[in-house]
Amino acid sequence: MVSVIPNAVVAENFRPLSYSSRAIDQIPTSPADQQGPPTSIGPDDTITIVVISRLFYNKGTDLLIAAIPRILALNPKTRFIIAGSGPKAIDLEQMLERNVLQDKVEMLGSVRHEEVRDVMVRGHIYLHPSLTEAFGTVIVEAASCGLYVVCTRVGGIPEVLPQHMTTFAKPEEDDLVVATSKAIAALRSNKVRTDRFHDQVKMMYSWRDVAERTERVYQGITGDISPEEFYGYYPGQGWEASGDRVRSFALIDRLKRYYGCGVWAGKLFCLCVVIDFLIYVFLEMWFPRANIDIARSWPKKPPAEKPRTSNAARSSR
Asked: Any stretches that span the bilayer, and where are they (predicted)?
């Protein structure tokens, strides 16, 4: 049994501006709290796209460099805010000079983690053109700040946020431009309720939930909770009868569980399991396990006990 526990964010540190003024009712103290984007976007309002990333190849910086001029050409009332540093920063600056886009793209350089929220709340869309990503905590932080997320469909990103919070694109220039333009059009038509994102992210990714799930895994491994409670096993529900504490699913039950692991990942997992099972059946027919000699456990010599010193000997010393 494999237990998958996602990462989490401190949602209180990534609140949108509207949420701060509505829920906390306090006076803004930072410049970012005073110049946030409006809740509804009109056809003549400028949409700000935020990018916060290390400027490396695997983070899709080359893809970003190629897409920015085309996105700005298709959507004139759009600007970019890019935060981050790396070896690709020079290529990005050269692209801005070549296309004369310095007034459309603001380069902030490296920012500290405690400043990320102040940068995010200045925008409407978060663009994440990464070529490889396991989880992508930054897109969860962006959604918590009330930004609509445009990201590439790579790694574990498609499993991180619900579909109504994201627009996915292939890691290709043309598809990224199309996806970003769709997101801009969706915001201008007010089809996306970004004001609800923070509360939804707060419920989905909580460190308390991560701690409880991690503790439960340790309790199941150490036997502090019963196998029935840990694995969800109850008599007559498809588990194989076995005296071992770790029971295995029947094939059909395992396929059902793997199928629910994701839109594409679930189908891939099921295909791998079926192929492995067919290989296992073939090997069992070709070379049955009854013909395999089982290695005997080598007897271990018990550790020698240390001689105990009598009290009389201790007193004589």
From this structure: 264-283
Give yes or no for residue 246 having a pLDDT over 50: no
Rounded Cα distance between 132 and 65, Å, is: 17
Centroid of chain to Cα 68: 25
Q: How far apart are CA 264 and CA 172, in angstroms?
A: 19
pLDDT reported for residue 131: 92
Amino acid at 273: V
pLDDT tier at 247, thresholds 50, 70, 90 = very low
pLDDT mean over 101-117 = 92
> CA–CA distance from 274 to each of 251, 254, 259 (Å)?
9, 10, 12
Task: Determine the pLDDT at residue 173.
Answer: 93
Residue pair 51/106 in contact (Cβ under 8 Å)? The answer is no
Residue 288: beta bridge partners? none
Taking 70 as the threshold, does the pLDDT of residue 243 lie above it? no
List the 105-109 sheet strands across, edge first.
Answer: 105-109, 78-83, 47-52, 125-128, 148-152, 166-169
Residue 70: CB atoms within 10 A of its CB come to 16
23: its two tokens: 């829920």
**Predicted pLDDT of residue 27:** 40
117 within 8 A of 131, measured Cβ to Cβ: no
The Cα 53–Cα 60 span in angstroms is 9
Could you write out the DSSP letters of every residue in 281-307? HHHHHHS-GGGSPPPPPPPPPPPPPPP
119 close to 50: Cβ distance less than 8 angstroms: yes
Tell which residue, 196, 245, 239, has the closest CA to residue 224: 245
- Choice between 295 and 82, residue whose per-residue pLDDT is larger: 82
Determine the pLDDT at residue 245.
40
Beta strands in 39-90 (DSSP E): 47-52, 78-83
| CA dist., res. 1 & res. 52, Å (int) | 36
